[in-house]
Amino acid sequence: MRVVIQDTYEKMSKWAADYIAGKIRAHKEDRPFVLGLPTGSSPIGVYKELVRQNQAGELSFANVVTFNMDEYLGLPREHDQSYWYFMHDNFFDHLVDMKPENINILNGMTDDPEGECARYEAKIASYGGIDLFMGGIGVDGHIAFNEPYTSLSSRTGVRDLTTDTRIVNSRFFGGDPEKVPVQALSVGVGTVTDSREVLILINGHNKARALAATVEGGVSQKWTCSALQLHKNAIIACDEAACGELTVDTYKYFLDIERKERL
Predict the structure, then answer these.
(1) Domain with 254 in it: what CATH number?
(2) Are 229 and 198 in contact (CB under 8 A)?
(3) Separation between Cα atoms, residue 22 and residue 189, nearest integer Å
């Protein structure tokens, strides 16, 4: 596992955006570059920088196919808290050459949730898998909507949301947890870790315990983020604020390794 520590959220976002952009530019295969994407507050800075590069003519999305992590079950696309709406408002609508047919987001209004999830997995496989999956984690270490104790080999499926998650997300629903959907469609932990590379963003003091569990803890269903320890190409991009629970030796180790990488 690689852990890249940056001073601020802004520097973390710039590093992650540059890393993703570099992978897209270096992709020389005939097939598209397949990129997994999250919602939430953590990736907003990354999306802004990728949009800037795209609009400046520095980066093309013409040969990029995207798959989003999750979507609330029962929210229409037009709802301002649907993840379809979030992604278009914060990212897709600002790219000059992103092809609409290359955007893949789970359908939260499907009449057949299990069938929708199976179709999603099959479509990912039809592209040869995901090249790079960017994600974030919750304060309890969950990836996408894979709450604690979700199987680390899970695939895309229907997820019941915990009370804690609904309370945390209620800030987007007028502060009322009852307005937050009780279920979502989500890629599985196994779906994410099957990707050739995984890049996870972790920022803020409230994520410090989750970062420590991801990097220093044992592999456990309690912390679904810990599955990243088993991935050969996992990268954590974090800011200083998220490092508060790391041991001093761990913190110094990753700073030293990254410094040597730059030399």
Answers:
(1) 3.40.50.1360
(2) no
(3) 25
The burial class, CB within 10 Å (0-12 / 13-18 / 19+), for 263 is exposed
**Would you say the C-alpha torsion 163, 245, 253, 240 has a positive or negative sign?**
positive
Torsion angle of the four alpha carbons 67, 73, 77, 78, in this order, in degrees rounded to the nearest 10:
-150
Q: Is the pLDDT of residue 192 over 90?
A: yes
Known active-site residue 93: no
Q: Does the pLDDT of residue 140 top 70, yes or no?
A: yes
Statement: residue 130 has pLDDT above 80:
yes
Structural domain boundaries enclosing 210: 2-262
Other beta carbons less than 10 A from residue 5's beta carbon: 20
Q: One of 49, 116, 121, 142 is an active-site residue; which one?
A: 142
> What is the predicted pLDDT for the residue at 259?
85
- In percent, the amount of the chain with pLDDT more than 90 equals 92
pTM recorded for the entire structure: 0.94
Is residue 200 within 8 Å of residue 224, measured between CB atoms?
A: no
Under a CB-based contact definition with an 8 Å cutoff, are residues 12 and 45 in contact? yes
Indicate if 142 belongs to the active site.
yes
For 36-50, the pLDDT digits (tens) are 999 999 999 999 999
How many domains does the structure of the chain reveal? Answer: 1
Q: 3-state class of 70 per DSSP?
A: strand
Q: Tell me, yes or no, if 97 is annotated catalytic.
A: no
Q: In terms of Cα–Cα distance, which of 212, 217, 214 is closest to 247?
A: 212
